[in-house]
Amino acid sequence: MGVGLSRGLRRPRSLKPTRRARRGTRVRAECGQALPVTRARWAPGRLACTEAPPARPAAHGPGHHSGRVSLGRRNRETEPARGKPPDGSGPLPRGTGRTLMSTDSPLAGTTAPPRRPQPWLVAPEDRVRLPSAEQAAHAQADPARPRWHVTPAWGWMNDPNGLSVWPGPDGGPLVHLFYQHNPCAPVHQRIEWGHQYSSDLIHWHDLPVALRPDDDGPDAYGCWSGIVLADERTLPDGSRTVVPTMLYSGASTRPTQTACLATAVPGDPLLTRWVKHPGNPVIDAAPASTGGLTVPEMRDHSAWREDGRWFQVMGAGLPGAGRGGAQAGAALCFSSDDLRSWSYEGPLAVGDGDAGGTGSVWECPELVRLGGTDVLFVSAWHASRTLRSMWMTGCRTGTRMSIDVTGRCDLGENYFYAPQSVLLPDGRRVAIGWMQPNGTQAQRLAAGWAGSMSIPREVTLGADGTLRFHPIAEADSLRSRQLVDAAGADAIAAACGDGLRGDSLDLVLTGRLGESDGDVVVDLGVSDDGARRTRLRLTRRAPAGAVGQDAWAGRLSLDRSASTAPGSVWEAPDRAELAGPVPLDAGGGVHLRVLRDRSSLEVFVNGQPLSARLGVAPGDDGVRVRAGALADARLRVWTMADAYAGRLAPAAG
């Protein structure tokens, strides 16, 4: 179905920012300033962008220009489950400018939506509390709990936070990973900041909780996601020092989340002690929009320093900014001289509110530079559901970003969510995402833990303008015993046979996928009778006239319909197929890597990941590989070692 091009799109007059908004509006207290919405258009299918006219330059820096993000039509031959984009969602090249609707739908006069439910407002007497020792014992014994992915010692884990590098006790660099954590039970209630550190991003050590809510503070119902940044300050003697500083979202009875600060106590190289800013929150209200429109969602942070000022973006939802007047996800930009008093600068970029695309709220935005290109990561949230993490490349000028190419971070949708990245001293950009828990709440409570992190992934920019993700090289250090090293389809089949088993494996399959109708199949978790298995399938595809990710010549799918037996230790109720396009090297070259860590599965095909949760049943651990469609096929398989030498012990009582 054809999609028309949009050229010369204009900003509706009612959406133009006022002169005061262009300069930045103080949001430390009341915020009544109109929001200069730069609307992006999105429909199910592919993302694209048309460039809006340049905005007036900010008083403090270079001129702004904005991008409008659009998503092309959905391939309606197969309706995706759970609001997922279909196979083929991906980027378009610069200048395609596809859109399905006019950009002139006005926002002026739109009224604020009714006050929404606030599910995090769980009264203290209604919160679930389980003994820590009991949770830890159950977690340690649970056969579904990953052994070499980051997990909580017990309790709940979600978004990675504060991923950063700091000098350790001996002066060497340590990577600190904070995370959303509830130590009271494996449920999402009254979130704290858990804390682990590593010298290699692979082997981890638990530390005590770093940040807790204050009963009477702006974070009384949770210290939500944020970052740790380096705040360089001048001391009274004139010397300079760098203070590790948390910028995080506080959840309370306020209509939206707020921005809060905490600083590390000096002389503590493991960053275990933090002091909250007495003036919290530093942003205590969402900026108001044109026509009295309110912003019902605003949380999560990314910050950088430029031209002597701090800038940050927060994820948000803008009512009326999406298709048909729907609420749309957005990244709102603020500036500050000192991290304590912030001015609103307008939206960096805006989505269009479609559940099959960017959703109605953007969570965990992160703006980075990669190979000379600006990259914006966002996680789409819609109707209280986490949808998917996405990347957008383009050009940022001041506090506006023109979006050129976009795509999905992971074909597993919300099984790689809320990623956060860090620039390592050796120049690598490495990201970690949250792998959401599966199973029922009763299973989670019985297991003593919920949620884990992805394997750290090196992020690079491909020659076609798309992002690629690979397990960091240090992951190879987890390989323990090599089970298979076979070349050729027949040798591979013989090596698998009935003897290849395991639920903690690193499997690498390479070769060239021809133009024929053949495919490559990897079955995991195979039962003795063959009735149960999880199937990975890699096929060749030939999209006509496609561009960007849609032009990728491979298709990867994960079939979980026959995974585990009902009533097993950890039965995954989500068995929907996960699928999407993957790149093939010249001549059909394939590098397929499968990382199976009990209930955690991560698959990488030439830099495109697919992550998922698997059900776990004792004895269902057979592995089968069918590689007849691969020329020059080679299969290597290793068992994997544990990433934790020991776990944090629960406090007495």
From TrEMBL:
Annotated region described as Disordered, given as residue ranges: 1-32, 50-119
Domain Glycosyl hydrolase family 32 C-terminal: residue ranges: 519-608
EC number: 3.2.1.26
Keywords: Glycosidase, Hydrolase
GO biological process, any: carbohydrate metabolic process
Pfam families: Glyco_hydro_32C, Glyco_hydro_32N
UniProt keyword annotation of Zinc present: no
GO terms, molecular function: beta-fructofuranosidase activity
Composition skew (Basic and acidic residues), residue ranges: 74-85
Enzyme class: hydrolase
Annotated InterPro entries: ConA-like_dom_sf, GH32_Enzymes, Glyco_hydro_32, Glyco_hydro_32_AS, Glyco_hydro_32_C, Glyco_hydro_32_N, Glyco_hydro_beta-prop_sf
Keyword Hydrolase among UniProt keywords: yes
Glycosyl hydrolase family 32 N-terminal domain boundaries: 149-471
Skewed-composition ranges (Basic residues): 8-26, 62-73
Family per similarity comment: Belongs to the glycosyl hydrolase 32 family.
The protein's name in its UniProt record: beta-fructofuranosidase
Taxonomic placement: Bacteria, Bacillati, Actinomycetota, Actinomycetes, Propionibacteriales
